[in-house]
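User: Hi! I'm working on a homework problem where we have to compare a predicted structure to a textbook description. Could you give me the structure for the chain below?
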Amino acid sequence: MCGCGTAVHAAEKLHRQWVGIDITHLAINLIERRLKDAFPGITFNVEGTPKDLEGARNLAERDKYQFQWWAVSLVGARPYQGHKKGADSGIDGMYFFSVGDNTTKKLIVSVKGGENVNVAMIRDLKGTMERERAEIGLFITLAPPTQPMSAEAASAGFYDPGLVKIYPRIQILTIEGLLNGTARAAFPDWRKGEDTFKKAQKETKKVKKGKELFEEGE
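Assistant: Happy to help. Predicted structure tokens:
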């Protein structure tokens, strides 16, 4: 078992071969981050997570919470309030990013794993952003968005951090697009996630290849 990643971290540092197993997509994602921070350039396989749209649908049908946590990880965010199940107040994920003046801003994520989505969901995200004073909202959907949804998202306008680029305040991202690389979240982040996740200390060692990271039960 991986625990919080200490076992595989130690094995990698000691030049040992390893296979790590954990029970949730959230845990796997956190361990991936720890290994990549500590051992830049490391390569390993992750088995048991969706690799295509059909796999994502299967996960959404089996466990909506696991689906939400996995979908949130696709944009580098962390699950809202850790990984507690229950009411989410319209928020499934959270990310804090830094801009040019080194102030921290808030990004929220809403995930929908159903086959039917509608414009009311975008309006709900708008309201949640206002309540949370979030600069950017990401709407991640398994089903393709409707034209009214896209129009409602566009009506939210842009976030201008005072740098060279501006960013849509509401961004609709499909699971299919995130998996095949045609969609990605757009926001400035000078500290590269360090305001959201604690960064593991970099280890100095030669990296070996050929390891695998598995999710239990897959």
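For your comparison, note the following. The chain is about 30% helix and 20% strand. The CA atoms of residues 22 and 194 lie 24 Å apart. Good luck with the assignment!
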